[in-house]
């Protein structure tokens, strides 16, 4: 079997997510995602051909799913600064189309879930810091509207706070 290679930006971001956000196995009764390993739901793992017990999904298999499902041809094609990280993380947590809609709403655009020319142009009208801030606010608002917010809201809030406080220079030094 050939060893897969991934773009450096993806590897940098996925390592931060693995080290700081996504844990091991989970099967919380209130989580509509069901059984989850390394942040990958059983449904998603099955879609990507995984047939085993979710407790045995390897980190390498999870990384490949993250790449194929949430990075390749999506975030990687359009955004080169750290907004890409936040959009990638939101995609993992809420789905790619929903993440783009949250971003579009933060930009004051019609939310169609497609990361096209209008969205990319609107991104370019803001500083990186501004757009990440606006995106984070809209993301937290979205979570607060979900039926299971009372169960998972504190965790989602902590996730956003942790990600919004990343020191990018320090993170880069860890993985060089």
UniProtKB/TrEMBL annotation:
Keywords: Hydrolase. GO terms for molecular function: hydrolase activity. Residues 98-160 form the Peptidoglycan binding domain. It comes from the Bacteria. InterPro entries: Lysozyme-like_dom_sf, Peptidoglycan-bd_3, TtsA-like_GH18_dom. Residues 19-95 form the TtsA-like Glycoside hydrolase family domain. Pfam families: Glyco_hydro_108 (PF05838), PG_binding_3 (PF09374). CDD domains: N-acetylmuramidase_GH108. This is Glycoside hydrolase family 108 protein.
């Amino acid at each position: 079997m050939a060893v897969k290679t991934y773009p450096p930006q993806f590897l940098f971001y996925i390592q931060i997510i693995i080290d700081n956000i996504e844990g091991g196995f989970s099967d919380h009764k209130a989580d509509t995602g069901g059984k989850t390993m390394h942040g990958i739901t059983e449904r998603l793992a099955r879609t990507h051909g995984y047939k085993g017990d979710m407790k045995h999904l390897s980190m390498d298999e999870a990384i490949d799913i993250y790449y194929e499902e949430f990075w390749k041809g999506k975030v990687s094609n359009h955004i080169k600064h750290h907004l890409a990280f936040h959009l990638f993380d939101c995609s993992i947590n809420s789905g790619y189309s929903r993440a783009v809609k949250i971003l579009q709403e933060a930009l004051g655009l019609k939310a169609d879930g497609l990361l096209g020319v209008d969205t990319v142009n609107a991104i370019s009208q803001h500083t990186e810091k501004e757009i990440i801030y606006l995106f984070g606010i809209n993301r937290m608002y979205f979570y607060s509207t979900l039926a299971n917010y009372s169960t998972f809201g504190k965790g989602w809030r902590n996730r956003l706070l942790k990600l919004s406080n990343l020191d990018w220079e320090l993170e880069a030094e860890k993985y060089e």
